[in-house]
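Pipeline run #58 for the internal structure catalog. This entry was flagged by the ingest filter as a single-chain record with no existing model, so it goes straight to prediction. Upstream metadata was stripped on purpose; only the residue string is passed forward. Reviewer on rotation: M.T. Logging verbosity set to normal.
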Amino acid sequence: MSDRERIRTTCPYCGVGCGVVASTDGSVTGDRDHPANRGRLCSKGAALGETLIDSDRLLHPLIGERRASWDEALDLIARQFGDTIARHGPDSVAFYVSGQFLTEDYYVANKLMKGFIGSANIDTNSRLCMASSVAGHVRAFGEDLVPACYDDLEAAELVVLTGSNLAWCHPVLYQRLAAAKEAHGTRIVVIDPRRTATCEIADLHLALRPGSDVALFGGLLAHLDTHGLCDRRWTMDRTTGFGAALDAARSFVPSIGNVAALTDIPADDIARFFAWFATTERTVTCYSQGVNQSTAGTDKVNAILNCHLATGRLGRPGMGPLSLTGQPNAMGGREVGGLANQLAAHMGFAEADIDRVRRFWQAPRMASRPGLKAVDLFDAVLDGQIRALWILCTNPADSMPRASRVRDALRACPFIAVSDCWPTDTSRLAHVVLPAAGWGEKDGTVTNSERCVSRQRPFRAAPGEARPDWWMLTEVARRMGWEQAFAYATPAEIFREHAALSAFENEDGHRLFDIGALADITDEHYERLQPVQWPLRRGASMAGTPRLFGEGETSARPLTFVATPYRPVAVPVSEAWPLVLNTGRLRDQWHTMTRTGVVARLMTHRREPMLDIHPTDAEQLGITETGLVRIESPHGTTTMPVRLSTDQRRGEVFAPMHWNDSHSSAGPIDHLVGAAVDPVSGQPELKATPVKVEPVAPLWRALLLKSDASKPEGEVYWSRAPVEGGHAFDLAGLSELPDGVDSRAWVLRLLGASPGAELVVYADPARATFRYASIVDDRLEACLFIAREAAALPDRSVLVAALGAPLTPEARLTLLSGCSTAADAEDAGPIVCACFGIGHGTLCSAIAAQELTTVVDIGRTLRAGTNCGSCIPELKSLLRDAQAARPELADA
């Protein structure tokens, strides 16, 4: 393949499913022909080429720490699984898989576990993000269906974003919505406890009490009925259960005042929202993790769906409920039955479905009941019920709630296999590690949030001996005796079987998930397959179906209202645990940072984890912005920097989910998060953990630059970010500095100094300032700068430029004694525009000095916001703050 050959593929990040044009030289652009993004990319997508780094990749199978052959590793996995099943039964083994699987990977894993091993103990990290939406859809529609599509965002007159920080979590959809608002005046309501970047385009922000969504949407349903705004003919013809759902809503929300009391939202704002929803037919409601990650997540979803069913607002342009998935193929995994409580092709564990799938697969021992969901699965590993576990393409040692308990479970398990691209905290606990092909190397399909199937195509060779996940699973299945059923040679063969199963005994269209039109496609057609939405029934148009439940469309079963009684969060705050911890995503990071954490510019927006807390709460607790805080829950404790923010509700704090043990001593935050789950979906409550927070006064601060990523030792807070030529560590001492011989040994360990390296020291004990440099062949290998306050540390940009560079005697002196401090340097501040490296301070100065009033003005002056556009919400926030400070601009 020529470096100039351009391959159309799909982004591996969120569920938007953006089209990407990539080439082997690492260049990446948005695909203008893909319907999801039409050429747009976010900051993460635009930096995909910079993640194609092989230096830290897993390149060969490992047994323990020993390199092994593929045959040896696969034989061991097959033997361990086979022996465990023979001794303890099929439910003694399990798979834990990922929404970053391709559909073909997912299909093989699900078929192997449920049809041939004979257990449903296969669950996915989508349990942590989408399970409540799945359960809500099944209860309302009889199947996991998303009725609306992305185009509805542009056709709507009102868009309600609930539990969704669209600007950071689905940035391309945010850009589409912002453009629609600019062009058509779309009204936008954001429902979120926090004021997020998405609120920059909101006409109304409802900062509700965590967990109170059911009260809000139950109140809306009651309001619609009271004012005669329900579509009674539509509900009578096409739905069932309306009366019971309405009775449940009225039982706890007899008035707007009662809704206000339960949600902690001003009554006037609730009335405004209800009036807008009631009078705007073309309304889309988008929901994501803030709704799903709750012990009432399924009821929240159904409370939303009830309002759309009551008004008949689905199936037509510009209206409908739209679940926004968190991962690139969460939807594809749901199609093939990747969750423990599903079978394949949107079938469940009804007797007829079990029989149908058994006959299609010719399965020797078909699972007959749901398996263990993620939280229960890892509990079963810890107590010895599950004795062999294969984890593929995910990192539960960091991402699962009660992460410390999950790590204990992995250590206790007799056999763990892990397939991944990079070493992770999970792979370090495995008995067998398999090197997996990554994005740009894998071949298959994914399905995005609007049911659009797209191809992921390879454009580079997998490094070392890395292989696709479907191939590993197939090879193990063959070794366990099922050669004929797993005789796949290409992903196209797997896809054809998946498509055929979706249409099998589905002639009456009882299951709306049907891609039977693709069951007989040739390899050539599969290779050039264009993005297309399902259903795609045999004999029907290949154009796909953008919306479900449209006019004239019949359904094999009525749509169902679900009664959703209100209940608060599972574990309330108390005197011992007075604050509510919310966790979530940041703009430029992804999951546990195994991919985005290697890109230097993606670490400039937020280079370390911070706990956001309201200034009033901080003042009462004696917390200052320059200090650290210790956060403790019943499940764990950690220490991190703090950020004072009025975007937080009082009594609540927020921490990012991304940092793991490899990037910060503060990670992972899921050490603190509890594991209470939704009783229907099994999804854990990741956004409402009671905690206590107390200030920590660091005794010293330090900046460490070195070529390797080894962790600092001792009682020290640290965070690591990649920089050109190495890694930069921010350090804060939690104990006094060592002295004498101990001090020199400690410094050498921190520096990771090479044998024979020259150690240069500059010390000013009176000012508590110490500077060390490790020099090899007159080049700076590493340096460590220690001071009482962070402002007295050197400007890191100067040091990064010197790392690995030759040092003259004069440069040595300047580096150690005359280097400007962070306080002396021009304060560019945290990076806002990652594409062009434009900082907060630079932007504020330019806005003030040049009287910039629009994002376009900023773009012309500094280029910020002119590439991927992910920073535009923050640019708007800076402009708003500047206008508030200058009344003459606000009045103009």
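catalog note: The mean pLDDT is 93.
catalog note: The chain has six domains: 7-51, 75-127+329-488, 131-323, 579-696, 700-818, 831-891.
status: ready for reviewer M.T.
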